[in-house]
Design brief:
Number of helices: 8
Protein name: ABC transporter ATP-binding protein
Organism: Sulfurimicrobium lacus
Keywords: ATP-binding, Cell membrane, Membrane, Nucleotide-binding, Transport
Strand order of the largest sheet: 6-7-8-3-9-10
Number of strands: 10
Radius of gyration: 21 Å
Distance between the termini: 62 Å
Number of domains: 2
Bound molecules: adenosine-5'-triphosphate
Order of helices and strands: EEEHEEEHHHEHEHEEHH
CATH architecture of the largest domain: 3-Layer(aba) Sandwich
Family: Belongs to the ABC transporter superfamily.
Shape: globular
Structural class: alpha/beta
Helix content: 40-55%
GO molecular function, one term: ATP binding
CATH class of the largest domain: Alpha Beta
């Protein structure tokens, strides 16, 4: 597989009034072109910091991140980001939101009207792909959370980014809408051939979407374990019930507990019952 993103010795230290926070320590990871990689881990293990660093929104303290062999120096149109909060422009209609980044580039680069025409075709196609053809003229506040997030994804895809960086994009959605979004994003992955880096708290989501699940550990933030997902490229919701899926889910959940310093449920129960006996 061709390497798309090469993370080498990535280190990030934040200096706060309370001291230094080692958000990332010596992270080494290669992500392939057209790979779907998901990141999980206990709160504060540096998932968002790493994603933001790939997006060029955060500078590393040391180490490097390269895309196609070139070091990242800031944000670029080759990398689009989707966050948990939809961040649509409330004063723009759905179609205007989707075309917004393209408009900026058109203005900047003096692209011809034929290009604009092509861009409109792409915006229409993306709107259709997201199942939002009927909502082109609506304002964001007229849409459900799931619909708004679909608009945000369409807007991110508009400039044909090579890399889609997603930070808990479905975290605010209800369980049913999330399932729909999972199948949609797998479909987008197949069609658009982008490299997707996806951060989530939800282990089931991480396994269902990713080809690899990267588990990070906190204090300092680092890569702990990388799991290969034993699922075929074409996925369906039934697979979430397969023994290998459930086994991997259990293994990852246990490891997150261990790395976060939390006791396992069983250990906790044993301790609580011992304490209860001592009190009697
Ligand atoms: N701008 C900042 N200034 C100071 N500390 C920060 C900053 N951003 C992140 N941190 C700290 O860096 C560590 C890693 O944070 P990060 O948000 O990357 O973790 P995370 O794994 O994404 O957490 P969560 O799952 O809770 O979103 C945390 O201890 C966090 O408090």
């Amino acid at each position: 597989m061709t390497t798309k993103i090469q993370i080498s010795g990535a280190d990030k230290v934040f200096t706060t009034s309370k001291g230094e926070v080692h958000a990332l320590q010596q992270v080494d990871l290669d992500i392939g072109a057209n790979e779907f990689v998901t990141f999980v881990g206990a709160s504060g293990c540096g998932k968002s910091t790493l994603l933001r660093a790939i997006g060029g929104l955060e500078q590393l303290s040391s180490g490097s991140i390269k895309v196609d062999g070139k070091p990242i120096t800031g944000p670029g149109v080759d990398r689009a980001m989707v966050f948990q909060h939809y961040s649509l422009y409330p004063w723009l209609k759905v179609m205007e939101n989707i075309k917004f980044s393209r408009n900026l580039r058109v203005n900047r680069e003096n692209i011809t009207s034929a290009d604009v025409e092509r861009a409109s075709g792409r915006a229409d196609a993306l709107l259709g792909l997201m199942g939002l053809g009927h909502a082109a003229g609506a304002y964001p506040n007229q849409l459900s959370g799931g619909m708004q997030q679909r608009v945000a994804i369409a807007r991110a895809l508009m400039p044909r980014p090579d890399i889609l960086l997603m930070d808990e994009p479905f975290g605010a959605l209800d369980a049913q809408t999330r399932e729909v979004m999972h199948d949609l994003i797998r479909h987008v992955f197949k069609l658009e051939k982008a490299t997707i880096v996806f951060v989530t708290h939800d282990v089931e989501e991480a396994i269902y979407l990713g080809q690899r699940v990267v588990l990070m550990a906190p204090r300092p933030g680092r890569v702990d374990t990388i799991y290969d997902v034993p699922l075929p490229a074409d996925r369906n919701q039934e697979m979430k019930l397969a023994p290998e899926f459930l086994r991997l889910k259990r293994e990852i959940l246990d490891r997150i507990r261990e790395t976060s310093g939390m006791k396992t449920d069983l250990e906790l129960l044993e301790r609580l019952s011992r304490e209860a006996e001592e009190v009697q």
